[in-house]
Design goal:
CATH topology of the largest domain in chain A: Dna Ligase, domain 1
Strand order of the largest sheet of chain A: 4-3-5
Order of helices and strands of chain A: HHHHEEEEHEH
Largest interface: A-B, 42 and 42 residues
Low-confidence stretches of chain A: 1-10, 108-118
CATH architecture of the largest domain in chain A: 2-Layer Sandwich
CATH superfamily of the largest domain in chain A: Ferric-uptake regulator, C-terminal dimerisarion domain
Shape of chain A: globular
Largest sheet of chain A: 3 strands, mixed
Number of strands of chain A: 5
Radius of gyration of chain A: 19 Å
Structural class of chain A: alpha+beta
Oligomer: homodimer
Strand content of chain A: 15-25%
Number of helices of chain A: 6
Distance between the termini of chain A: 63 Å
DNA sequence: CTACTTGCAAAATATTTGCGTTATT
DNA sequence: AATAACGCAAATATTTTGCAAGTAG
């Protein structure tokens, strides 16, 4: 029985090299709370490395994600968004302005489902996204 | 103070017309559990309406979503996925095969956070996605 | 009739990839 | 030296849109 993906992980793993491009991308992502897109990261990194290419940004985002150094958000929209904070925290997305905000991490403590004991699905991770209105937009809403 | 999006919703709302294309798309989506992509829906509807265009599928998926008749999944992947079941249920995505499964709806009863009272975010909806292994893939995993 | 919707094709976005070169180990 | 990673440009998706013609209300 062939199990290609698993085998690929086991046999000869690639030796990852450290490059200034990868480091710059990771630094940009760790230093923002803005859940940026690949294009935004590209613009930001270009201030430091003007000749970096968008392809390199995408390649490194994929590498970094595979290594678990960054995570990718499950957000409906035009393009993917990434997060330098890989800790277990949740996101709120404002239905009006589209802003993605962090939901306080203490909330995570209440998540203890034991679902894996009750369903036929073994959970390794869960991602929770709240939809609603952020503080500023709620103010606008009530004024109308 | 201008609040464009809200105004747009209030002033002259468009009268939606019933078309066979829209009905076919909705029917396909209501009759599958597969959380399909726009392209899959297109192929499926074309069996019945061979001349429908992909643009029409996309246009109607957006309309139906705006009306709340279907929902869109927050899934990391190549393209968007839709769901004809708009009830509050959760999804599990298999890390190995990519399959999206439904998590039993009874689980929903346990979600009573009261987060909106504790945070500065007014929640209208939440979406929860579990990541892990589905039954079949877990069997493969343990055999290795 | 009016104006929403369609099919088609072209455009706009977003992401990946081939290739010859550069840089890291 | 070997090979991972780069920059660039071309190739792939994926999704949106302009427009003339069709159709529901």
């Amino acid at each position: 029985m062939k199990t290609l993906t698993a085998d690929a992980n086991k046999t000869h793993r690639k030796i990852l090299k450290k490059t200034k491009q990868k480091e710059a991308i990771l630094r940009v992502l760790k230093n923002t709370m803005s859940h940026p897109t690949a294009a935004w990261i590209y613009d930001e990194v270009r201030k430091e490395l003007p000749h970096i290419s968008l392809g390199t940004v995408y390649r490194n985002l994929r590498l970094l994600r595979a290594q678990g150094e960054i995570s990718e958000l499950e957000i409906i929209g035009d393009c993917r968004r990434f997060d330098g904070d890989t800790s277990n925290h949740y996101h709120g997305r404002c239905d009006r302005c589209g802003q993605v905000v962090n939901i306080d991490e203490s909330m995570s403590k209440r998540l203890d489902w034991g679902i894996s004991r009750e369903t036929d699905f073994t959970i390794s991770e869960y991602r929770l996204e709240f939809h609603g209105l952020c503080r500023d937009c709620r103010k606008l809403e009530t004024k109308e």
